[in-house]
TrEMBL record:
<dbReference type="InterPro" id="IPR048950">
    <property type="entry name" value="Ppx_GppA_C"/>
</dbReference>
<keyword id="KW-0378">Hydrolase</keyword>
<dbReference type="InterPro" id="IPR003695">
    <property type="entry name" value="Ppx_GppA_N"/>
</dbReference>
<dbReference type="InterPro" id="IPR030673">
    <property type="entry name" value="PyroPPase_GppA_Ppx"/>
</dbReference>
<protein>
    <submittedName>
        <fullName>Ppx/GppA family phosphatase</fullName>
    </submittedName>
</protein>
<feature type="domain" description="Ppx/GppA phosphatase N-terminal">
    <location>
        <begin position="26"/>
        <end position="300"/>
    </location>
</feature>
<dbReference type="InterPro" id="IPR050273">
    <property type="entry name" value="GppA/Ppx_hydrolase"/>
</dbReference>
<dbReference type="Pfam" id="PF02541">
    <property type="entry name" value="Ppx-GppA"/>
</dbReference>
<dbReference type="InterPro" id="IPR043129">
    <property type="entry name" value="ATPase_NBD"/>
</dbReference>
<feature type="domain" description="Ppx/GppA phosphatase C-terminal">
    <location>
        <begin position="309"/>
        <end position="474"/>
    </location>
</feature>
<dbReference type="Pfam" id="PF21447">
    <property type="entry name" value="Ppx-GppA_III"/>
</dbReference>
Length: 490
């Protein structure tokens, strides 16, 4: 349970805008203390090769410099920065930008999947929802993607579609033209959005529909004024017809629309109207909360016994019938070895090792001969609630390299695997290869500076001859590593 005045910060690096939220919990109630945003339009700077335009990057970094003083006042574990659609798309080519962003903010940028983005949006909107639990469909139109979630007390179905107000503006309204020479770009954008929504009609069926974030709020303000709480079907039909009849975005004269929102308004409206039509929505409430509030709630949970990632790992273990006794044996031994090796190892690293071990045999549910490769693939590409893409890649690397030849990773932003964790995991797997309980009495792991030293009493080795041979093989596997392993029998 959080203390009365613990403060948290969430920073959402979206495809259209960057949003900062500073909040604190007073009992169980979250109070927003400070908000800030910058219209960066990161998606505009993404070229065909998924590279970020330097001018857009500079604009984005300038916004981060503005946010930094707020973050500097908080403990690092009370801050979470997430990157969404554009950074997901450009992640392989954005190392330089991400490194500069981390240098400014002092905390890492976590790239999250579309499904994880949808989960956090749901969590944020539900934080503002009152009354008895009821079925809801929550919709968020971002700059590069649109998230749709259906659920009651927890999200039951999550979707992330590749359509957003910036990406559609770039594709259909690049020159600002809406309709000219019998070509209606607004209607083309609508048709494209409806095509993306095929098969999702069930998401809003019999549910209370709630919209959030910039594009939906902008439409609500245009229709009903600055205090708009909902959007009605007949009103958005009329607005869509009006905008589709304009020749150029500059011709639009819409009440309560901020000038910075104008360049992407037509695209956002086209997507929203398509959602109303395709999902047969008659009314949509507008929520003041969105992903940032979800991030804050998630972050508070991590620090106070409600880490969603732990729940996810448990669910995966149950689904794939992982041997929990073996996971416990290997985990206990690996963590004890890590304690010998690095007594002050950070808690998040210990947790990462524990999760990797709990999942290290997930591939056995489908194959024996290639279970490591399959397990690593499953972990890397699954939608694991609560985890960032970087965290999943790290777990995948550890699972892939739990035995045999060590594959050298291609390091990039946010992925710098520790040989300490890998060594302890591999040794734990060796010691319990036959799924037998063993103690570490007579075993010591240490760092000699130029090599790891694994010292084992001869009596222990004599009583476990098969493991002795595996340990000598392990010594060979580490010969090519920066810090080799030396086995010393005493």
């Amino acid at each position: 349970m959080q203390t009365q005045t613990e403060r948290y910060a969430a920073l959402d690096l979206g495809s259209n805008s960057f949003h900062l939220l500073l909040a604190e919990f007073r009992g169980q109630r979250m109070v927003r203390l400070h908000t800030d945003h910058a219209m960066v339009r990161l998606a505009e700077g993404l070229d065909a090769e998924r590279n970020l335009d330097p001018a857009i990057s500079e604009r984005a970094l300038a916004a981060l410099n503005r946010f930094q003083p707020v973050l500097a006042k908080l403990p690092k574990d009370h801050i979470r920065v997430v990157g969404t659609n554009t950074l997901r798309t450009a992640a392989a080519n954005a190392d330089g930008f991400l490194e500069e962003a981390e240098s400014i903010l002092g905390v890492p940028v976590e790239i999250i999947s579309g499904i994880e983005e949808a989960r956090l949006i749901y969590s944020g909107v539900m934080a503002a929802a009152g009354g008895a639990p009821r079925l809801r469909c929550i919709i968020d139109i971002g700059g590069g993607s649109t998230e749709i979630v259906r659920g009651c007390e927890t999200p039951e179905r999550l979707q992330s579609q590749y359509m957003g107000c910036v990406s559609y503006s770039k594709r259909y309204f690049a020159d600002g033209i809406i309709s000219r020479h019998s070509v209606n770009h607004f209607k083309r954008a609508q048709r494209a959005a409806r095509a993306e929504l095929q098969g999702l009609q069930h998401m809003a069926a019999e549910a209370e529909v709630v919209g959030c974030s910039g594009s939906i709020k902008a439409v609500a303000r245009v229709l009903n004024g600055s205090e708009a709480k909902d959007i009605k079907r007949e009103d958005i039909d009329r607005l869509a017809q009006e905008v589709a009849g304009a020749e150029h975005i500059a011709d639009l004269n819409l009440p309560n629309l901020h000038e910075k929102r104008l360049p992407v308004f037509a695209a956002g409206l086209a997507i929203l109207h398509a959602i109303f039509c395709e999902l047969d929505i008659q009314r949509m409430e507008v929520s003041p909360y969105a992903i940032r509030e979800g991030i804050v709630h998630d972050l508070a949970g991590r620090l106070h016994g409600g880490d969603r990632r732990a729940d996810t790992v448990t669910a995966v273990m149950q689904r794939w019938q992982i041997d929990t006794n073996q996971a416990r044996r290997v985990s206990d031994t690996a963590l004890k070895l890590l304690q010998q090796l690095r007594p002050e190892y950070p808690p998040e690293g210990r947790q990462r090792l524990r999760w990797a071990i709990q999942l290290h045999e997930v591939g056995l549910a489908l194959t024996h001969s290639s279970f490591r490769k399959l397990g690593a693939f499953m972990i890397k590409h699954a939608d694991l609630a609560g985890f960032s893409r970087g965290e999943q890649e790290y777990l995948s690397y550890l699972v892939r390299n739990q035995r045999g030849r060590i594959k050298h990773p291609k390091e990039h932003y946010g992925f710098h695997p520790s040989p300490d964790l890998l060594l302890c995991l591999r040794l734990g797997c060796i010691i319990h290869r036959d799924r037998t309980e063993r103690t570490l009495r007579g075993i010591n792991l240490a760092d000699q500076g130029d090599a790891y030293r694994l010292q084992i009493e001869r009596e222990w080795l004599d009583s476990n001859p098969a493991i002795e041979e595996l340990l000598y093989q392990e010594e060979l596997h580490w010969q090519s590593q920066t810090c080799p392993l030396r086995l010393l029998a005493v």
